Amino acid sequence: MALLLCLLLLSAGRVSGNDSFSEQTDRSRLRAIKPVILHSEIIPEPASVPSAHASTIVETGDGILAAWFGGTYERHPDVSIYTSRFKNGQWSEPVKVADGVQNESQRFPSWNPVLFKRDNGDLILYYKVGPSPSTWWGEYKISTDEGKSWSAMEAIPRGCLGPIKNKPVIIPGGKILYPTSIEIVGKWNVYMEMSNQDLTDWEKIEVDNNGFDAIQPSVLFHKDGALQILCRSKNERVVESWSYDNGKTWSPLAPTELPNNNSGTDAVTLSGGLQLIIYNPVTSGRNKLAIAGSYDGKIWEKLIDLEDQPSGEFSYPAIIQDKDGIIHVTYTYNRERIKYVQLKL
């Protein structure tokens, strides 16, 4: 019996040692990654639009398209959705493409645009309209010409909201999976939605929030077919959930090792399998913004600081990878403009 116990303990020690060695190997590999900034600038905006926030970005066949909401200030009824295109090294003049006008006497602010390209090449612009995040509803427009023009507004079916801040993804089988959440007084709650690519047959998928106040998930793909969401929270940590059945069910939310300052993040799975998150690497303030990397979604290492200032707000980022492997980032710059950064690893 003593010999058996000894062997079991030795075996456990070897497993633990292997796990520790694997973690150190991953961290060493991640620390060896050296992102290079290729381009960085503030996207021009008309002087008549003094505030900008909550950007989104997508690759098109005619350059990189960004969108954000802008107006007098967040929640003002004049806040609308604007787009600008990065082509041949320059950003185009921003164009207003959506607003919250209801009729001649009523207008609500617009919020949180999300750009997405479906398999047929159409662009979809999802956004919110309403007096506040607790009362808003989801709308969308479709472009068949790379975002140069947009269809009339369509409402997302009642009971669903569409993507809240971060881009949806297409999962095996062709459906669109939407990372979404609600913000009601006293409670935040993450969940998921799914629809066909023609934006029919919407369904809502519950996620056990496990006592966390969390919103604004983003979706990552893993080599074993698992899906992971990373979410903003009020709990000083980015929180996560996992699905092993193509998004039909999800594990209870749990904290990651990543700090969170109750501000939005975004994440992307690169073509080679590396996971990236862009986030504020602090638990308070929004004066720092960074990108971290992971191979397994568990072990994270900060790869680069994009902003590290004594004060200011650098927040609500968006991140994508284009067909050539270049990484594109946008984020709020002091609530006045949207900043664009282009990187390679």
Could you outline the blueprint of secondary structure elements for this entry?
Elements: H1 2-31, E1 36-43, E2 51-60, E3 63-71, E4 80-87, E5 90-91, E6 95-98, E7 101-103, E8 106-107, E9 110-117, E10 123-129, E11 137-143, E12 154-155, E13 169-170, E14 176-184, E15 187-195, E16 203-206, E17 214-221, E18 227-233, E19 237-243, E20 254-259, E21 266-269, E22 275-279, E23 288-294, E24 301-308, E25 314-321, E26 327-333, E27 337-344
Tag the structure with descriptive keywords.
345 residues, mainly beta, Neuraminidase, five-stranded antiparallel β-sheet, 27 strands
Question: What's the gist of this structure?
Answer:
This protein is mainly beta and 345 residues long. The chain has one helix at 2-31; strands spanning 36-43, 51-60, 63-71, 80-87, 90-91, 95-98, 101-103, 106-107, 110-117, 123-129, 137-143, 154-155, 169-170, 176-184, 187-195, 203-206, 214-221, 227-233, 237-243, 254-259, 266-269, 275-279, 288-294, 301-308, 314-321, 327-333, 337-344.
